[in-house]
Amino acid sequence: MIEQRDDVVTSTALQQQQFLTVLSRDEAVMRFEAALAPTPLGREEVNLSDALGRVLDDEIIASMDVPPFDRSLVDGFAVQAADLVEASISSPANLQLNQEIISAGTTPTIAVSLGTATAIATGGPIPRGADAVVMIEHTEASTLTPNAEIVVQRPVSPGQNIGFAGSDIVRGETVLRRGAVIGSREISMLAACGVDKVPVIRRPRVGVIATGNELVAQGMPLRTGTIYDSNNPMICAAVSESGGIPANYGIVCDDEAALRGTIMHSLAECDMVILSGGTSKGAGDLTYKLLADLGPPGIIVHGVAVKPGKPLCLAVCDRKPVIVLPGFPTSAMFTFFDVVAPLISRLAGLPERRRAHISANVPVHVPSELGRTEYVMVSLVERENGVVAYPLDKGSGSVSTFAQSDGFLCVDALADAVPAGTSADVVLLSSRSRIPDLVITGSHCLGLDMVVNHLTSSGHIVRLIAVGSLGGLAAARRGECDVAPIHLMDPTTGLYNCSYVSPGLELIKGWTRMQGLIFRKGDVRFDGAGPEMALATALSDPDCHMVNRNQGSGTRILVDKMLKGATPTGYWKQPRSHNSVAATIAHRNADWGIAIVPVAEAYGLEFIPIAEEHYDFVLVSERRYHPAVGAFIEALDSSVVHAELRRLGFRRSSEV
Ligand SMILES: Nc1nc2c(c(=O)[nH]1)N[C@H]1C(S)=C(S)[C@@H](COP(=O)(O)OP(=O)(O)OC[C@H]3O[C@@H](n4cnc5c(N)ncnc54)[C@H](O)[C@@H]3O)O[C@H]1N2
Ligand code: MOO
């Protein structure tokens, strides 16, 4: 291991590569396309069974008639229509049966002459002489004559119940045109015409490389400071979804020779290379520097005035696109979706995908960075008076934001916010979003996940939007949800939740969660202390760091009540969940905080009980009789949910 001298660390830290000129999104795409001039790749032939989703690179001209011969469309008797012109109930016609039965796949041998009929099955070839087929249910076997005869009591018109050769597709007809995307319907036509090899546009082979010393592949253990590589699996899947073939070159650490080797190797084997990470200004960010050496025209764009996605780097080497997506997962996903997916589809010859838009009300103030066009991921909720778009804000590092959003809205680079109540245009990410029948907006709890799991397994579609207790309460007051889970203590009475219920809302009891002071095992400052003593110790020692909770959370109200105005070291560290508090303490970045007992147990921390908090549900009264709301109230009392709550260390309020 190389020892890091302080002066080397400092000088490396100062070698920070600046972005090239930061361009607008449209300018960046325009310059990249001008340098690349992307056109569909060449042709290849695939078996019909592999043609699904591919793009035809030629017209398909039928080399045969479909059907190839005149065939019967019903089970019945092939006849000459002229024999039955006068047939009626009062004057039925008798036809003598020919000595053959034509089933599908056989060749008729006997011609149908006047006064005769031949039994024929659906799909059987029409025999010579016959010009119509009478359905079996419109005939009777004759009992009057010794010879085999049928009696027919109604006429048929010439051609009736016959599918003529070429009536579906005629030989020489253009069955499918160049550029058609082959789906099951197209495959049916190709198959009927006997096409076994299909000329299609070659799919781009896309090399995918993750960069960073901190990355670990799934299946391997994580060391301190490392994370699982989520970008490569995501990008490979997204390449397939866009019409390309992913080639995963794995994780390459921040080593110049290794990274250069993998880039060169993938460039030789692929039509396009996508890297992620190492685009920004960090001292370990090598990728950009390596691309700059790859030869003309090289880097076309490095830095785009969008959020997320500012460090996007677009290069062209050997007429192939080389793209470096930002390392942060949301940034990588969004820039892939916005810039890379359309390019892969274009190379694969797929038509441009048009995204549906919807107008929605943004109920909360959304701050935005001036100078960058900002894409805000939103979760949509449909109410009687329109669609509401809740911003999902977990930052660029999140892997869940893009996955859980229904769409996004765009904030102009010159705007510093979207004011609450704005009507915004939302671009939908999927046309398949299912409209939820129950919307729960407020504080998240693992117990709530159990209730929701119970509801979804009984067929309900539930939308859970975690915006904290106060956010949920505000949404309930505006009628934007059905139920708002809250755990808010009234600082004057010390009672939970009831004083926050205003007209139009009602309270449904949930469960209680024991909250307490959590600390690492063996920390003698807290060992054996009660809550008052532990708090006094923490407040008297400036080296004893706390980790607080975010404003708006129920726990923060409890913390502030306990601290009585004191702001101990670490007070301004304010993560958004019990788990973050526990992880910060477990990783020794803080020494104490307030969280609930199951979280302390999950992180192997000690727990000094302080108070039971009540996690209850504010119900929008006018929604009470909606079936899904009824199902939710019932689920709270189901034995399965009770057992799950107990397992998590919570007590249903009715059991308290
Ligand atoms: N001083 C500045 N710092 C940063 C700026 C800036 O303008 N000035 N830009 C920020 C922005 S915006 C972004 S986005 C990130 C992008 O940085 P990089 O593209 O160089 O990516 P890394 O530094 O390698 O990683 C960032 C982040 O993402 C994680 N990561 C990387 N690869 C993966 C992967 N395959 N799977 C999961 N997570 C991954 C990595 O661990 C880092 O946490 O830079 C900001 N910095
Ligand atoms: O561009 Mo970064 O993607 O804002 O986080």
UniProtKB/TrEMBL annotation:
<feature type="domain" description="MoaB/Mog">
    <location>
        <begin position="207"/>
        <end position="346"/>
    </location>
</feature>
<dbReference type="InterPro" id="IPR038987">
    <property type="entry name" value="MoeA-like"/>
</dbReference>
<dbReference type="Pfam" id="PF03453">
    <property type="entry name" value="MoeA_N"/>
</dbReference>
<dbReference type="InterPro" id="IPR036688">
    <property type="entry name" value="MoeA_C_domain_IV_sf"/>
</dbReference>
<protein>
    <recommendedName>
        <fullName>Molybdopterin molybdenumtransferase</fullName>
        <ecNumber>2.10.1.1</ecNumber>
    </recommendedName>
</protein>
<keyword id="KW-0614">Plasmid</keyword>
<dbReference type="InterPro" id="IPR036135">
    <property type="entry name" value="MoeA_linker/N_sf"/>
</dbReference>
<dbReference type="Pfam" id="PF12727">
    <property type="entry name" value="PBP_like"/>
</dbReference>
<keyword id="KW-0808">Transferase</keyword>
<keyword id="KW-0500">Molybdenum</keyword>
<comment type="function">
    <text>Catalyzes the insertion of molybdate into adenylated molybdopterin with the concomitant release of AMP.</text>
</comment>
<keyword id="KW-0460">Magnesium</keyword>
<dbReference type="InterPro" id="IPR024370">
    <property type="entry name" value="PBP_domain"/>
</dbReference>
<dbReference type="InterPro" id="IPR008284">
    <property type="entry name" value="MoCF_biosynth_CS"/>
</dbReference>
<comment type="similarity">
    <text>Belongs to the MoeA family.</text>
</comment>
<dbReference type="InterPro" id="IPR005110">
    <property type="entry name" value="MoeA_linker/N"/>
</dbReference>
<dbReference type="Pfam" id="PF03454">
    <property type="entry name" value="MoeA_C"/>
</dbReference>
<dbReference type="InterPro" id="IPR036425">
    <property type="entry name" value="MoaB/Mog-like_dom_sf"/>
</dbReference>
<dbReference type="InterPro" id="IPR005111">
    <property type="entry name" value="MoeA_C_domain_IV"/>
</dbReference>
<keyword id="KW-0479">Metal-binding</keyword>
<dbReference type="Pfam" id="PF00994">
    <property type="entry name" value="MoCF_biosynth"/>
</dbReference>
<comment type="pathway">
    <text>Cofactor biosynthesis; molybdopterin biosynthesis.</text>
</comment>
<dbReference type="InterPro" id="IPR001453">
    <property type="entry name" value="MoaB/Mog_dom"/>
</dbReference>
<keyword id="KW-0501">Molybdenum cofactor biosynthesis</keyword>
